[in-house]
Design a protein that fits this description.
Elements: H1 4-15, H2 22-25, E1 36-38, E2 41-43, H3 57-62, H4 65-70, H5 80-87, H6 111-153
Antiparallel strand pairs: 1-2
Helix pairs in contact: 1-6
Length: 154
């Protein structure tokens, strides 16, 4: 289980692993409730929460996600799982060996909440990969030790 503020940082980090797109690199960090531009289209995430936006590292800042999560009602006292449940993702269970799924945009969760859960989902997948790779890396020396031990006995 993540500490309430720690999961927010982890979510941010997961979006930074995506590749940059030149169309979003030069976008300014507008305040969260203003209209934003992606290409030639303008929209307001609060008025159009189901509009799909390409996942890019710059998107986090463009949507004002830090401010949104910092000011989420009771956000400093809840876990990521409780947050997911509050916004409609009742089957979202993050953790080592778990595979949380936020669903499709506006299937159950809308707008900034969906983007936050997708970022947490991606971070969880990354951490699971690290955990699995550490386990596989540990298996190789153990096998070599066992082989060396039995070959020296014979």
């Amino acid at each position: 289980m993540f500490a309430p503020r720690a999961w927010r940082r982890l979510v941010i980090m997961s979006l930074t692993t995506l590749t940059w797109d030149s169309s979003c690199e030069n976008q300014s960090n507008a305040p969260q409730n203003r209209t934003r531009t992606w290409g030639s289209h303008q929209f307001n995430i609060d008025k159009e929460p189901c509009r799909k936006i390409p996942l890019k590292p710059a998107l986090w800042s463009q949507l004002g996600m830090n401010d949104y999560l910092e000011n989420y009602p009771g956000g400093s006292k809840i876990t990521l799982q409780e947050y997911a449940s509050q916004v409609g993702a009742t089957d979202f269970f993050p953790g080592i060996g778990e595979h949380p799924h936020s669903g499709q945009l506006c299937e159950a969760v809308k707008g900034r909440d969906w983007y936050a859960l997708v970022a947490a989902q991606n971070w969880n997948s990354f951490v699971n990969s690290l955990y699995d790779s550490a386990g596989y890396a540990y298996e190789c020396p153990v096998c070599a030790i066992i082989v060396d031990f039995f070959s020296s006995v014979n």
